[in-house]
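Moderator note: this is an archived Q&A kept for reference. The question asked for a predicted structure of one protein chain; the sequence and the answer are reproduced below.
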Amino acid sequence: MVKKYLRGLINRIYKILPLKESGYNTTPKYIHSLRKELTGFESLMAAINYDSRYGSVISVLKVFEDEFDELSPAYVKSEVFRLITLCNGIISKYAEEGDDEV
């Protein structure tokens, strides 16, 4: 479950880059929805022992949500790739044996 969900999450986080570059005004709503989902996913948080990296992902998404229009594309890109690295770290540590689904 962990690997499959977080791989999907990486794709959804990566989607923020073209949204920033294109200037869609729905981007903060997209980020809000994503952040709320992560905040409410109690079974995932328990499965990864409340890893602080998960909290970091949620926190950065909150900054994106609140300040997205003011953030530079370069900053957003940097943070998106940092979030992806955090997710990959969680996957490496907590993915179940045989959980090879992508």
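Archived answer notes: The first helix runs from residue 2 to 14.
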